[in-house]
Amino acid sequence: MKKRLNAIEKSFLPILLLFHITGLQSVQNNGFQCQARFNRFIWESPRYLFRLLQCVGIVTEAFSIVFLPEKKVPTAVFILALLQVIANLQACRSRKQIRVILMKLWKCTQMLQCDHNGRKLKASILSYCFVMMVMFISYVLFYKFSNEFKMYQNFIENSNHSFPKSNQYLMFIPHIREIASPTTTALGMISLTAYYGFVCFYIKFLFNGMEEKIRNLNKDSSYDVLLIQSYLELTSIMKSLDDYLCFSAFVIVISAMFGLFFVNFDVIFLSSDYIRNFIGEIWFFVSLCMVILSASAANSAFITAKEAVQLLPWKIPQYHKQLKVMIRSECMTDLSLTLWKTYKIERSLIFGAMGTLVTYGLLLATLNGL
């Protein structure tokens, strides 16, 4: 069982490694079973470094609010950075469930006897993480040559504070901010969006496999309790995913919307850093779509699977009474993935988000007299 269980965990290994860096400790330290303090420190050092970068990022964003003449954007970025720190801390509290969900997914795969293409899944996860990391690195490199970075640097150079000797230290703030905040934001968002998205897609894959098996049943089929058991197991996985990561999904969507808003506003009205903003727009849009499209796909698959389960008594009439009693008692609960338990995730949310961004963009442009 342990060997088979590792099949799906190996597919999610790139995400689990990112989780280990961000402090979720989802990878077992098999290579560091020795109790030597140095070995343990080496294994835990990525988590310590990530926490340090988080603190430094929050501090530099607070300095940006104090020193920059324009307060709106730094304040919004500071609030989003705090939300992402809170989302990461909450995800850390649910780190045990991250592995439990993967175990349950593999259990359902065995029960339904679905063809688990681990290589294809792992290749998709690797491709997503790699592309997102490349875009993040490109965004950071282009930021150093952006107008915003130059404005920040020039303002500190020309500032006349009460403590002029501190200006030489303040000069490092733009450079530290360039690394700390984007790195923690990118690692946190990439790992959470990848895990949430691919788990949702895998749930959809299993629901579709179960629905297909039910549709192919005929009157001569035998009573297979595993179909109902797998349905109940998948619904429990969806419930756990929504219970433990709904706030993280909410923070990712809000952060992506804010990012899209400021990137597009910067392109249209303020700066000429088109390449950097174009990379940032793709990055935020992919993060937004990864959560919304995957969760809405899982919600739709759950509805169709529930309808298929309700047809079981008529598919196998010789077990009509037993199946009807079991379905009525255990399979009638409605379930959906949500944003912070307040909003059901549907595909139409993307169009609503785009409309909101356009509306507030035009409103802000009008108020600023642009």
Automatic annotation (TrEMBL):
The keyword Transmembrane is annotated on this UniProt entry: yes
| Spans through the membrane | 48-67, 73-91, 125-145, 186-207, 244-270, 282-305, 349-367
Q: Does the keyword Membrane apply?
A: yes
Signal peptide extent: none
Query: Which UniProt keywords are present, listed alphabetically?
Result: Membrane, Transmembrane, Transmembrane helix
Q: What is this protein called?
A: Gustatory receptor
> Which organism does this sequence originate in?
Trichonephila clavata (Joro spider)
Q: Which gene encodes it?
A: AVEN_119040_1
